[in-house]
Specification:
The protein is of the alpha+beta class. Among the domains are: 87 residues, no CATH class; 101 residues, no CATH class; 68 residues, Carboxypeptidase-like, regulatory domain (Immunoglobulin-like, Sandwich); 171 residues, no CATH class. Strands 5-8-3-2-11-21-20-19 form an 8-stranded mixed sheet, with no helix packed on it. It has a 6-stranded mixed sheet with strand order 27-24-23-31-34-33, with no helix packed on it. A hairpin with a 4-residue loop joins strand 2 and strand 3. The relative contact order is 0.11. About 11% of the residues have low confidence.
Length: 636
Amino acid sequence: MKNLLLLYFLLPLSIFANSEKPTTSKIEKVTVYLEGASIERTSSINLISGENTFVFNNLSPDIDENSIQVSGLGDASIISIVFNIDFLEKKETSQEYKSVENLLKTFQQQKNQIENEIAGYNEELQLLQKNQRINSDATNLTVEMIKEMSVYYRNRVTEIKNEIFKQQLLLSELSKSISAHQSELLKLDDSKKEQRGEITLKLNNQKPANLVLKLKYNIKNAGWFPLYDIRATNTSSPIEFSYKANVYQQSGTDWENVNVVLSTGDPNTNNIKPKLFPKYLNFNNRSYASRTPVRNTARKYNPTIHKVSGTVYDDTGLPLPGVNVIIAGTSQGTQTDFDGNYAIDVQGYRELTYSYVGFETEKLPIYASTMNVSMIAGSALEEVVVTGYSSPISEKSDWLANRAKGIVTSYDPSTSYSEAENLQQDNSTMIKESGLTTTRFEIREKYTIKSNAEITVIAVDEFELPALFQHYAAPELNENVFLTATIKNWEKFDFLAGEANIYFEGNYAGKSFIDPQATADTLNLSLGMDPNIIVKREKLENFKSKSFLGGTRIVAKGYTIEVKNNKKTPITLVLEDRIPISENKEIKVEDVETGLSEYNDKTGIMRWKLQLPPNATDKKEFTYTVKYPKYKKVYL
C-alpha cells in the first residue's frame, strides 16, 4: 500500500519531467554569407532534475538539420536534437495574389498560342521550300504559269517571315510581362509562412538549473552581394569609394532588430581537396573520359538583375555568333548575333548556360546586368534547341589613413583570423576581421530584414583610393574615349566581384563591373565616356588600295587617327589600334608602318601614349600591305 501511494505521488512529477515545453526564442545575431546565412537564437529555460524536453517553434522551414548547434548547457547533457516541419492550416489566398496569378495564366496562354502560331508558320515555310522545285519533265507549264508560281512563292514567303517577325516581337513583350508578374507573385507569396520549422531538444540534468541557451543553425534562402559607388570629382583627386552590401532573405521568418555580420565565405562550397590520380591510355578505354574542371568563381547570384546583355568571345578574344544562351533549368533563351552580342530577360531566374559546338559549356550565376563570357575550346556538343525567344541586340598604413572616419578594423584572438589591426575610433560603424580565406564585417547598427523579395542595403565601408587616371581609345572598335582609373595594391581592400555605379564630375556615368580575379597587381576601372575628347579614324586619301601581280592580289591599307582634347586640363591618352596577323602562309602582311607606336609584332597591337595639353590636337598614321592568292577571299 505504501509503495502504491509513493508511485501515485511520483507519477505527476514523472509526467511533468518528460512533458514537452514550448519554448520561446529570439534571433540575436545573423551571419550572412554570399549564399546562405547562420542564425543565432537565445532562449531562457528552466531545467528540473532528470529529462527535459523543449520545443523551439515558429522557425524557418529551410533549416539545415546537420548544422544545428546548442551551447550554454552548463552541466546538462544532450539526449537528442530533432528538426521537423510543422504544416500549418493553409491560409486563404489574398485577392491581390489571385489577381496577379490570373494575369500570369492569361499571359502564359497567350504566349503558348503565339508559339504555336510561329511553329505553324515555320512548318508552312518548310513545306514551301520543299515544293518550290519545278519538275523539268513537266510539259504543260508555260512561262506565265512559272511567273505566277514565282510571284506566289515570293509573296507568301515574305508574308510568313513578316508574320513570324511580328509574333516574335509580341512574344518578347509577353516574356517581359510574365517575368515581371512572376516577380510580383513571389513578393505576395506567403506559402513559406504556412510551413514552420520546429526543433525539439531533449536534455538531461542532475539538478534544477536556469540556463540561457544559444541555438545556432544554417539556412539557404539568404545571402548578400556587393554594390559599389565610385565617385571621381576630377582627375587630380583620389577616388571616393563606397562599399555597400545588398542583403536578401526568404527564409519564412523576419529578422527583427538583429546584429548583422557579413561574411565573404560560402558554406555551400565544396572544401574537400581534390586528389589527382594517374591517367592511363588504351584502345577503347572510356573510363578516363574528359571532364570539365571545376572553376573558381567569386561571382554570386544577384536577385536584382532583370535583364542581362553582353558579348561572348572565344579563347582568342574573337566574338562568337550563334552561341546558345539558355536560362538554366528551362528551354528559354536566345542566341548571340554576328558580333557575339546577346540580350535576355532573366527576372526570377538564377543561372545562365552558354553552349556552342566545339566549346565547353559555361554555366554562370546571374551576377550583373552585363555579362561578357569567354568560352574555352574543347568538348563536342550536341545540338541545343532554344524554344523561348529573346531578341539579340545588333602600403598598408597609407591605406588605413585613407579610410573613412568611424570605420574600425579589429582582431579577436579567439577566432582563426590571422591578420587584423585594432584601430579603435569613436562612433565606429563596423568591425572588420580579415582572415586567411574569408573576411567578416560586423555591423554595429542593428537591422530588421524582412523575409520577402526586397533588398536591404547596408553600408559596409567608405574610403578614398589613390588612382592613376588616363583616357583610353580603340577607334577601330569604338570612337568614344573612355576615362580609366588604375588602382595598385587593390587586394588590401578585400573587394568582391560586383557591379559598380560610376559617377564622374557629379554626373552618373553608367555601370561598370569590378572583377578582382581578372587583375594581377592592379585593378582597372572604366569611369565612362568623356565626350570632351574627340577621336576620328579615317582611311588615308589617295592611298592605292588594290592591285594584282600575277596570281597574287595586293591590298594596301592606310589609316589616320586624329585626336583633339577639348578639355580645359591636360590629359594622358592611351590610343590603340592593330595590324592584322596572318595565320596562313599564303597570306602575307608586309610593309608595316606603325607610326612611332609601341608595336607588338606577335599580337599586332599598336599603342601610343599621348600627352595632350588643353585644346591640343595630335595625329597618327599607320599603313600595311596584305598579299594573298587572287582566287581566294580575305576579309580585312
